[in-house]
Amino acid sequence: MVEMMRNRTFSEIKIGDSATLSRTCSMKDVELFGVATGDLNPTHYSAASAEKFAQHRKVVAHSMWGGSLLSALLGNELPGPGTVYRSQDIEFLTPVEVGDTVTVTVTVAEKSAPADVVLDCLAVNQRAETLFTGRARVRAPLEKVVQPRMELQEVALRRRHHVFEDIIARCAELAPISVAVCHPCDQVSLEGPLEAARLGLIDPILIGPEAKIRSLAQEFGFDLTGMRIINTAHSHESAEKAVAMCRSGEAEALMKGSLHTDEMMHEVASRDKGLRTARRISHVFVMDVPTYPRTLLITDAAINIYPTLEDKADILQNAIELAHVLGVELPKVAILSAVETVYPKINSTIDAAALCKMADRGQITGAQLDGPLAFDNAINEEAAKIKKINSPVAGRADILLVPDLEAGNMLAKQLSYLAEADAAGIVLGARVPIVLTSRADSAKARLASCAVAVLFAHARRIKGGAAS
What we know:
Blueprint: E1 4-6, E2 18-24, H1 27-37, H2 47-53, H3 63-76, E3 84-92, E4 101-112, E5 116-124, E6 130-139, E7 146-148, H4 163-170, E8 177-182, H5 187-198, E9 202-208, H6 210-220, E10 228-231, H7 235-248, E11 253-256, H8 261-268, E12 282-288, E13 296-299, H9 309-325, E14 332-336, H10 347-360, E15 368-373, H11 375-379, H12 381-386, E16 399-401, H13 405-418, E17 422-428, E18 434-435, H14 443-463
Parallel strand pairs: 8-9, 8-11, 9-10, 11-18, 13-16, 14-15, 14-16
Antiparallel strand pairs: 1-7, 2-4, 3-6, 4-5, 5-6, 12-13, 12-17
Helix pairs in contact: 4-14, 5-14, 7-8
């Protein structure tokens, strides 16, 4: 049944008429009011600031948050639709604490032609303490309005993108690492490493046709002063030389340029001349999702198409080591499937159960594992509670292990395009970290990918070498 709004015209209003509105103040209300008004007074958001600066010594709502309830009451109820606010005086007596239920009452005190109405205003909390008093003057509607109550757009708070900024900032005190940049022969693939070098993240070694690289730099105004360039005839030679430099230790990381990923990874995977280790090579997306409260790693969405159980164990260990480098001491790993129970006809649920048991036996270390978990149960605690899943991982995952490349690629891109996530990426399990960039990557994502490689390379220095 449609809820209707009805006003009271000037002729219908009588002295003594009143209306009441109650609203419980949440921290979300405080934050939304701050976003809408731009009021950044820290005493409304930080317990420490409130303790230091506010007389009340608790986080409280903006005074005008309570005052704004008067506008809602006057516009919705008395006089209602068609009301025009003329003036308001208000005296705030007691702060509104987060969690308080505020009851606002307006009572008609005066009427004067042609349509002026003066109303006494009072607000109290659930403890019957007076929050504020005042008087409002409005122009009441002259015509009767009866209409369906409006449905406003829903508003959701999202945290600001900050994961990549934090990762890049962590590199500020670290020495830049040498990076073999493989075939940077278009604007994006040349600009990325040059910007990373300007910020002191890397010392790039540009490997490709020198004439083409210099021509690009001139065309787009890039400064190549001091840059080392290794001349090659074509992309295949670029891949060979870049991999060889990483294998010899001359470069501590490898970055893809404008050549196709498969061409470079073919050289990386070469048994005799490549960068393979005993560990399976895999890709990890580092996601900054505004609607998720922590950094999210997704693996593998770029290298292994249909990984075996043995492959998945390596893929997981690679991601766990990256999580450690990013500061997550004991990452929570959700092994994804379509369901949260082991079902023999869905292979990914069998793999999930086996991986969890492998972790129990110490074959996978450094993380808490659980699976199979459907995506909603992995990242949403309420969804996990509804399904009665009792797990330290459910709803709080740091790492998502996907069943195969197709699922992972679609998941990462859905988060990027539907949830406005940023995605950086790195390939692990080789002798050096490998930065895979895409034309669709934002400048920030490309820098974050470089920064992840820097952090990983420095962590490897401390450990004394590559994964065996």
